[in-house]
Amino acid sequence: MRILVIEDEKQLAEAIMTYMKTEGFDCDMAATFDSGYEKALVNSYDCILLDITLPGGNGLEILKELKKKNPGSGVIIISAKNSLDDRIMGLDLGADDYLNKPFHLSELNARLKSLLRRKFFKGSEEIEYKDFRVNIKEKTLLVKGELVILTKKEFDLLLFFLANPDRVITKESITEHLWGEQLSTVDSFDFIYSHVKNLRKKIMDKGGADYIQTVYGMGYKFAVK
């Protein structure tokens, strides 16, 4: 899962990034209104952690524009402002949660994971479908009761497919989701093919169905119907 941290307090932003990476998230960071606005509206994130008071502007303006472009975006406001008006305005604009500074990183992590479960998997930590079971918290996959050993990228790829069932997902989207900005402009997507091939093979080697369909010239689709 990929998140964006828009926060101008360098020490806090780095602490969040370090903690979230240990929890298995891929993180990007922005320290100003302009950079946060650009990254939030150009790239695709599972959740954005958004400060209100930023150099160059108000974070609520980023939230407003983001919800116009992508209403389903997950957003948690993290702010030193303890104003009821700010909180109400943020929630009215579409924020999913609001966390006042200072806060424990473990609480932020819990709220983030809860938001992602609500948005993508109806609040459940387990996803069951036909012959496989995925545990989001433990990061495990069982196919017909047998454990399938996946790399972190393979597991993240599986969750990305499950969050977008029966939709064509482009190789560019997969690249951006799993690797972030540093690989979003690559010319070759051979490494995507390798990850998809490995994931498909591991599922089928345990007797699972071939859920991952190649849509030639476009990308892939995880067919669950």
Any key phrases for this structure?
Rossmann fold, Arc Repressor Mutant, subunit A, 2 domains, 5-stranded parallel sheet, 4-stranded antiparallel sheet, 8 helices
Describe this structure in words.
The protein is α/β, with parallel strands linked by helices and 225 residues long. It folds into 2 domains: 2-121, Rossmann fold, CATH 3.40.50; 126-222, Winged helix-like DNA-binding domain superfamily/Winged helix DNA-binding domain (Arc Repressor Mutant, subunit A), CATH 1.10.10.10. It has helices at 10-22, 33-42, 59-69, 84-92, 105-121, 152-163, 171-179, 190-205; strands spanning 2-6, 26-30, 47-50, 53-54, 57-58, 74-79, 97-100, 126-129, 132-135, 140-143, 146-148, 168-170, 212-215, 219-222. The strands form 4 sheets. A 5-stranded parallel beta sheet has the order 2-1-3-6-7, with helices on both faces. A 4-stranded antiparallel beta sheet has the order 8-9-10-11, with no helix packed on it. Helix 2 (33-42) packs parallel to helix 3 (59-69) and helix 6 packs across helix 8 (190-205). The chain is elongated, with a radius of gyration of 18 Å. 29% of the residues are buried. The model has no long low-confidence stretch (mean pLDDT 86).
